[in-house]
Amino acid sequence: MQFHPGLASKDEVQGPAEIDYRLQRRRLLRDIEHGNVDREEACEIHPELLRVARNAAPSINELCPLCHDEELRIVAYVFGPRLGPGGKCVISDEELQKIAQRKGRFTSYEVEVCSACGWNHLRRRYPLD
Ligand SMILES: [Zn+2]
Questions:
Q1: pLDDT digits over 20-36, tens only?
Q2: Cα–ligand 1 centroid distance for 51 (angstroms)
Q3: Would you give the distance in Å from CA 114 to the centre of its chain?
Q4: How far is the CA of 50 from the centre of ligand 1 (A)?
């Protein structure tokens, strides 16, 4: 199981610009609310992503849109030269900066995660440079 559906698969053709996923997020939340999308499906989470979020990822001042129980945590996945096909999981700005200084093009995918119910969604994708 990929840690998030759609991640990186379309990346190559979309170019380096920043992409914001707020619209898709809102649409998905509305679909869940209306029962068009199964909540459990939306909260399906890769165990590794959940583990990272629980143990190390910084939380932001925003409650989970589904369970309203936990503050969301931010995990970034960076793709680029020598980071492997699955990308590299990064949770600190410092580490992001270090990667940005390397040679080559790197793209960061910011994912929000609720460590209580498992809600996870892409927030944005942006080039590191
Ligand atoms: Zn939640």
A1: 999 999 999 999 999 99
A2: 15
A3: 11
A4: 12
